[in-house]
User: Which sequence fits this backbone?
């Protein structure tokens, strides 16, 4: 792309050009997220689905792993897996009476529903209108229903004594901010957002996964940098060799660090 640099602000959205589903490895990249975080999300949600006939919504379903898991829980009556892009989901999930797929862009207003539990993980941080979207989603919850919002918490890179990793990671965040409006610090305000929406029984949890040999997160960040490779070169002072070295290093697995992690905020309407 001509004429863009570190100071350019683009008006793109997640999936337009960055992380579009046509990328060869996109489903695999999303599965690495599931591999890393599903066990925590599942533990968190298990304690909330204690009533029979629970209706669930999983927004920005990605690989569909959480929606599929939810659909297998005995107290769950119905699960809706909602995403702006559904063709990968449709090729992966077996739709049934209990599990349906809805194609919807959360920024649009032509969808609503009534649910007992809504899960939205690593989505709102990437959407510019996140504050209003959170408000909109909370209206889709029945009284007494549970909202589980998880987003990135980035408290690791500064502590990593590895200049190459730190440089590429911080450049990646800046390019995401400038391209699609990502806010990697948004999770810090989830608590107060939940409070001002009147949620009760609010709890928080943070998990920082490892980046080490054979860890899914090492491969995830390497694939993420590869997916953004051209954009990172266009919009920063990184050069091709430095970026390629950083990508390969993560794949070879000779780095030990804590990845940026997941902050979860849970509240009851
Ligand atoms: C980083 S992935 C997270 C996937 C999954 N929630 C997880 O945690 O494994 C973000 C997901 O949100 C979806 N998404 C992005 N923008 C969206 C929008 N405006 N409306 C609905 N879904 C969106 C993407 O297609 C993608 O599946």
Assistant:
């Amino acid at each position: 792309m001509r004429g863009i640099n570190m100071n350019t602000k683009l008006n793109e959205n997640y999936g337009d050009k960055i992380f579009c589903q046509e990328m060869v490895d996109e489903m695999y990249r999303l599965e690495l997220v599931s591999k890393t975080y599903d066990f925590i999300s599942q533990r968190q949600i298990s304690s909330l689905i204690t009533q029979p006939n629970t209706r669930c919504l999983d927004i920005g379903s990605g690989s569909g792993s959480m929606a599929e898991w939810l659909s297998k829980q005995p107290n769950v009556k119905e699960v809706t897996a909602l995403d702006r892009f559904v063709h990968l989901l449709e090729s992966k999930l077996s739709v049934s009476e209990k599990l349906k797929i809805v194609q919807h862009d959360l920024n649009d207003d032509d969808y609503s529903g009534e649910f007992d539990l809504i899960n939205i993980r690593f989505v709102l941080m990437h959407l510019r209108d996140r504050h209003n979207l959170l408000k909109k989603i909370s209206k889709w919850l029945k009284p007494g229903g549970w909202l589980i919002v998880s987003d990135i918490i980035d408290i690791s890179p500064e502590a990593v004594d590895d200049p190459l990793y730190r440089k590429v990671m911080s450049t990646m965040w800046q390019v995401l901010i400038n391209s699609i409006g990502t806010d990697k610090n948004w999770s810090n305000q989830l608590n107060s957002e939940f409070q001002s929406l009147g949620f009760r029984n609010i709890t928080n949890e943070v998990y920082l996964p490892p980046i080490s040999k054979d860890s899914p997160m090492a491969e995830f960040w390497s694939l993420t940098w590869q997916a953004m490779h051209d954009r990172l070169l266009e919009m920063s002072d990184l050069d091709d060799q430095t970026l390629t070295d950083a990508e390969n290093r993560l794949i070879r697995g000779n780095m030990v660090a804590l990845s940026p992690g997941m902050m979860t905020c849970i509240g009851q309407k």
In short: The first helix runs from residue 26 to 46. The pocket of S-adenosylmethionine is lined by residues 14-15, 30, 33-34, 60-63, 83-85, 105-107, 121-123, 126-127 (CB under 6 Å). Residues 185 and 194 are 16 Å apart (CA to CA).
